[in-house]
Amino acid sequence: MKAMILAAGKGTRVRPITFSTPKPMIPLIRKPVMESIIELLRDHGVKEIVVNTSHLAPVIEEYFRDGDQFGVRMAYSFEGVMVDGELQGKALGSAGGMKKIQNFSGFFDETFIVLCGDAWIDLDLQKVYEFHKANGSQATIVLKEVPREEVYKYGVVKTDADGRILQFQEKPAVEVAVSNTINTGIYMFEPSVLDHIPDGEEFDIGGQLFPRLVEAGVPFYGVSVPFQWVDIGSVPDLWDATRLILGGGVSGFKVPGKEVKPGIWTGINVSIDWDKADVQGPVYIGSSTSIGDGAKIIGPAVIGSNCAIEPKAIVNQCIIEDYTRVTGLAHLEQKIVFGNKCISPSGESFDIAETDIGFVLDDARKELEMSEFHALIFDFAKEVGELD
What we know:
- By secondary structure, the chain is of the alpha/beta class.
- 20% of the residues lie in helices and 31% in strands.
- The strands form eight sheets. The protein has an eight-stranded mixed sheet, covered by helices on one side. A seven-stranded mixed sheet has the order 5-4-1-8-13-10-14, sandwiched between helices. Strands 18-21-24-27-32 form a five-stranded mixed sheet, with no helix packed on it.
- The longest helix is centred in the first third of the chain and has 12 residues, at 94-105.
């Protein structure tokens, strides 16, 4: 079996993170979510993978390259053009991307699986394959039930008792949704499905291909297989997923590093005096990060690699990107610091550089500079006992 990973989208619901990082490369406790998908495919014997790319394509392609280091063979189908020396993405839609690959090489010459690149899963692909073949299905969707108030975020599916899909709605309003059974973005197809996709057009799997398959009466099924599905389709999703994993709510997810204390994991070369810093798990601290005396870190929290959490800093339930300096004047609570942005769990954000708060948050690689104003604040903090 072959596979395609959908990675061309702009990730608008995960902005501002996706201004600098394509959604499949967003890390879940240090590891890009797409890397976990590749490992799952490899472990199920799927070794040939094509990835469609567009938005920030080089970030994905330069990380995974030809896939050898991950035990697979990978290729890329870029959707876009070069204009005046600049690469401009122009996504063809999930189904349009499939058609482009097929027209280019005929890659899909057997049963193949298509997965979105923005969710961590531990799905048993063999069970899906067996269901797909047993029903003579041309297209099979992996389904999952969600609370009804969340259906507006997904493709909603109505099936008969045998799992045959009767109706498909793409992101319907809650009041008109035909069920609370949703499309997880994991599909198994036969090559014949590609005949229903027009050439050279932007065409979507959920919004266009699936309704067309239902109308055509193609053998089209949905299967519910127990599995964990951790979606990072939006900033709140990323926030919730990180907290869930650190809290042990995702049984198959291995937190990286070494558990040095109950609920506290670290990389190597971490500088910390455990008797003088207050670290309350669950917390992950990346390699080559320093935690100053008197600093307080309250979990769930992720501190990246090569960060500097200075003495007296307070970091409460945050996700901190690599190479971030958190000064002793900082009291961060429920924030994501990523790509020069400080982001709330709801997705609201501000630019760190534009707001001139380098005396609170900065790049740990920068030489320490202190303006006269910032020096006055620092001296005042020392006088009132905020800093030793």
